[in-house]
Amino acid sequence: MEEFPMGEQEENLQQEEGMAGGKSIEKPGAEINYGKIVKPESALEERIINDLEWQEGAGWGEPRRGHPEGAVIFHIAEVLQNINKLNGISELERAQLRIIALIHDSLKNEVDVRHPRINENQHGMLARRFAEKYSQDDAVLRVIQLHDAAYDAWRKRNEVGGERVLRLVDNLIVDLGPENLNLYLLFYQCDNETGTKSREHLPWFREVASKHFSAYVKNYGQERG
């Protein structure tokens, strides 16, 4: 896979934290009632939120551009609320989206900002490695790993030119697995309609993905409840 450049949100984290590991709540679980926020809907979700590594990552973070909510857990809560507003998804898709939401940003605290944020030092890959302890669902694992890649492609569109950006998107969807594109689009919407994140890239990626892989895109953009 062609490496995607570090996203703007990640650059902000690097600038604002300025150190490996960032800042987190000192005692995971002590100040935040994770169960009350997440409201787990399955034994699997219970196991994940009781994992101390997950709690440490979920309690990490301070208010910053795009994430005024601060700690990762509050972003997760916003994403879960957006999932609740989706109409027309199956029970399986809902369960998959919730697991992705719980894990996708929960390993940001383990990124070593002294080194390039690529490969095993990229928060999406770190999250995937964590998720592998709990799930063998290939779609879930791929979406977790690549959840910021579409945003990164959009961010580079004016720097590298249209043709290369389209190749980046094509490579993303191939690595994702075209059959997983609809799940990715659903999560991409829920993840990015939060905080103060820019919304410009949502319709851009939806249009590009639908144009090139229309056979794999279901009724995306359904009414929100």
Short key terms for the protein model shown above:
225 residues; 13 helices; globular; mainly alpha
Tell me what the structure shows:
- Helices cover 55% and strands 0% of the residues.
- The protein contains 13 helices and no strands.
- The chain is globular, with a radius of gyration of 17 Å.
What's a concise summary of this model?
This protein is mostly helical and 225 residues long.
Poorly predicted spans: 1-30, 220-225
- Following the backbone from N to C, one meets helices and strands in this order, namely HHHHHHHHHHHHH
Please tell me how large the radius of gyration is.
Answer: 17 Å
End-to-end Cα distance: 37 Å
Counted beta strands: 0
Mean pLDDT: 83
Structural class given helices, strands, pairing?
mainly alpha
Outline the biggest β-sheet: none
DSSP helical segment count: 13
Q: β content, as a range?
A: under 5%
